[in-house]
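> forwarded from #structure-qc
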């Protein structure tokens, strides 16, 4: 008798409550603080960053200028470079920021023994980087700048990534198949090499992908 009554109850709930609409309404309520009527611009062509920003449920457009100077002084500590570059990128969009615009810029660096591993120049460079990272730990730092007419916030997050020992065949397969020439450190954690080669992460996985999205969500509440 109890099972029959319980089944009847669940059938009633299923037929009379629209959980999809309920979730959508609740989600909208949570994100009301972010929907200020302003235009949000993500100044990045990275599909990973665009995916992460979409994941928190806000509308944005992408706009990227060519030939932005991403140089930095050797005097800047390696753990400050990502934030410095994010700020430098944001400043290059100053002329398009009006009272209704908020812009997000970011830069991700991979650091191994105090050496910054940028995007590889070619296959040889990619191989060198992956051989360096194989069997060792390294840091991934993503710096972010969020800028409006009235306000600017800069911050960064650090994740420590541990690689298993990679064979030469695994390195060659990854480079030939995924061509990671657009990725700092010559790898994307969300790709094959992340599945088979990364044993542990300390910190945010999404930060390694390209955005500390939890920090961006918190920061956008104040814009």
């Amino acid at each position: 008798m109890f099972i029959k009554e319980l089944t009847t109850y669940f059938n009633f709930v299923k037929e009379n409550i629209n959980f999809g609409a309920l979730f959508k309404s609740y989600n909208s309520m949570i994100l009301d603080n972010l929907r200020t009527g302003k235009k949000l611009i993500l100044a990045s062509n990275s599909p990973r960053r665009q995916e992460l920003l979409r994941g928190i449920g806000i509308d944005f457009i992408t706009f990227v200028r060519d030939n932005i100077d991403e140089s930095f002084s050797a005097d800047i500590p390696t753990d400050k470079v990502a934030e410095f570059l994010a700020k430098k990128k944001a400043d290059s969009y100053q002329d398009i920021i009006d009272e209704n615009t908020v812009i997000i810029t970011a830069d991700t660096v991979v650091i191994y023994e105090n050496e910054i591993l940028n995007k590889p120049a070619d296959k040889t460079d990619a191989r060198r980087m992956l051989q360096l990272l194989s069997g060792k730990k390294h840091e991934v730092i993503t710096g972010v700048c969020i800028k409006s007419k009235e306000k600017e916030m800069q911050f960064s997050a650090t994740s420590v990534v541990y690689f298993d020992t990679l064979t030469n065949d695994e390195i060659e397969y990854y480079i030939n198949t995924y061509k990671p020439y657009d990725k700092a450190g010559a790898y994307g954690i969300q790709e094959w090499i992340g599945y088979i080669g990364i044993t542990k992460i300390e910190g945010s996985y999404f930060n390694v992908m390209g955005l500390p999205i939890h920090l961006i969500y918190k920061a956008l509440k104040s814009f």
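QC bot note: Residues 1-33 form one domain. The chain has two domains: 1-33, 34-220.
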